[in-house]
């Protein structure tokens, strides 16, 4: 069975896109916009937050390489299961961390428009999901067949409902619990590896 993993807060210990917005962008706008989730689409929230950053990408990438850690056990897990990474974050901030870890994986994520000034996101998929009513990660797993999914947050809610097996923590775990949907709680990738074997 294919394994699909969220990036921020799932592979990484903390949400690196949020940390970048709070460090290089506007923390006040970040907090206000997060509160709008549900009224605004996830992509609208991300676009607003990311637009508060205008630092040169190289500077932010240096910070990300220095500060963003992956959860314990991910390197071995990646070797063995070759998970597909599906993220609402940015290729530009994910690939440098994978490179640093010496891991090569397929990644589906958004990109930045390559130009100076306020960051602008080029979203990977414009199709609106029939289930949640906005562009979502289900489009990224279409055609995979059965899959196991690991995630932590808002962007994982809809796709997790389509998975054969779900590993969840934090907000995703709370959401699935509230919906009465079964899942397995994880702390790190040793946990997930042990349960998949
Ligand atoms: Mg996440
Ligand atoms: Zn959806």
Protein described:
- By secondary structure, the chain is α/β, with parallel strands linked by helices.
- It has one domain (2-196): HAD superfamily/HAD-like (Rossmann fold), CATH 3.40.50.
- Helices cover 44% and strands 15% of the residues.
- A seven-stranded mixed sheet has the order 4-3-2-1-5-6-7.
- Helix 5 (57-67) crosses helix 7.
- The chain starts with a strand and ends with a helix.
- The mean pLDDT is 97.
- It binds magnesium ion and zinc ion (ZN).
- Residues 6, 8-10, 15, 151-153, 155 line the site of magnesium ion.
Q: Please give the CATH architecture.
A: 3-Layer(aba) Sandwich
CATH class: Alpha Beta
Bound ligands: magnesium ion, zinc ion
Estimate the strand proportion.
Answer: 15-25%
Averaging pLDDT over every residue, what do you get?
97
Class based on secondary structure composition and strand pairing: alpha/beta
Radius of gyration: 16 Å
Itemize the secondary structure elements and their pairings.
Elements: E1 2-5, H1 7-11, H2 16-24, H3 27-34, H4 42-50, H5 57-67, H6 74-81, E2 84-90, H7 91-101, E3 107-112, E4 121-122, H8 138-141, E5 147-151, H9 157-160, E6 165-168, H10 170-179, E7 184-185, H11 189-196
Parallel strand pairs: 1-2, 1-5, 2-3, 5-6, 6-7
Antiparallel strand pairs: 3-4
Helix pairs in contact: 5-7
The structure holds magnesium ion and zinc ion.
